[in-house]
Amino acid sequence: MITLDSAPEQVRRDRFGRPYIRPAEGGKERAYTRCTTYIGCLEDKFNLQLWKQRQVAVGLSMRPDLVMSVAAHSDSRADLDRLCREAAEAAGSSAAATTGTALHRMCERVDRGELALGDVPGPYRDDVAAYRVATAGIQWIHIEQMMVHDGLGVAGTPDRIGVLADDVQAKVVDIKTGSLSYGVAEIEMQLAVYANSVVYDVATGARTPVDVDLTEALVIHLPAGTGLAVPLWIDIAAGWESVQLAAKVREWRRGKHTPTSAWEIAIRGAQSADDLAAVWRYADTFGEWTDELTALARERKAALS
């Protein structure tokens, strides 16, 4: 008989969103790298950057006031960064993310028995109903439970770990509400890290191994508002090989003194704290700010002081 764990306690995080984890050997908590950040060093962001540029263009076409503001503040990087964010917002860039997060939460509450299907708002009731059909027969072991890989120094929270009908070994299960047009390799890597991690108890710091399939994981594609839930099998054995490559890349970058990106060049050339802040805003606009850049910026700021 499988007993579902209670809602996990929220982990404490640093200012960059990294979770504080107690070392397995004991001692003071330290920030672990987020799973998505760790694998990001291999991520091909070309298509994502193009999508963001398109969103800004669409937003500007909808907001003449922003076009005027761009012309008025063309000499200010900080203002232009802000206006680009506002244009993307006008195009609905964050609306899809907000809807996806809400749909995730609804499915979680349904799985925990906290929310009945009839209580789900009408526009997304069909989505949740489709999700329930797609996951029927799966016994959930963990829902949104923090996991850690101490060897990599990585922590993250998979959506689900569950045992499928007529199966013995558990599988990592992930819910995706957005497009799967790109980023499948990153999904393979992310789920592979979770499959090779252990459950972490936020209250005690205890680690609990889970017998999880290391060859494949299940993604439930649940595009919001469609009433569809499509099960997709992901090759996480291949994903784990990529994770090993990511580990080597990160180790190589730590040992290098030459810049590995334009952002690193900009940080090393910054002449003030304002310059560093501008680099952060611009890199963050493209989703390219990393924990390594944070550490480098901190070092540069200390040197300037």
Describe the structure.
The longest helix is centred in the C-terminal third of the chain and has 20 residues, at 236-255. Strand 7 (160-163) and strand 8 (171-176) form a beta hairpin. The relative contact order is 0.13. By secondary structure, the chain is of the alpha+beta class. The protein is globular and about 65 Å long. It has helices at residues 35-39, 46-62, 64-72, 77-90, 93-111, 122-134, 184-195, 236-255, 262-268, 273-285, 291-304, and strands at 20-21, 30-31, 33-34, 139-143, 147-149, 154-156, 160-163, 171-176, 198-200, 207-208, 216-221, 230-235. The chain has two domains: 20-42 and 94-249, Lambda Exonuclease, Chain A; 260-305, no CATH class. 47% of the residues lie in helices and 14% in strands. The strands form three sheets. The chain has a five-stranded mixed sheet.
Protein topology:
Blueprint: E1 20-21, E2 30-31, E3 33-34, H1 35-39, H2 46-62, H3 64-72, H4 77-90, H5 93-111, H6 122-134, E4 139-143, E5 147-149, E6 154-156, E7 160-163, E8 171-176, H7 184-195, E9 198-200, E10 207-208, E11 216-221, E12 230-235, H8 236-255, H9 262-268, H10 273-285, H11 291-304
Parallel strand pairs: 3-6, 8-11
Antiparallel strand pairs: 1-2, 4-7, 5-6, 5-9, 7-8, 9-10, 11-12
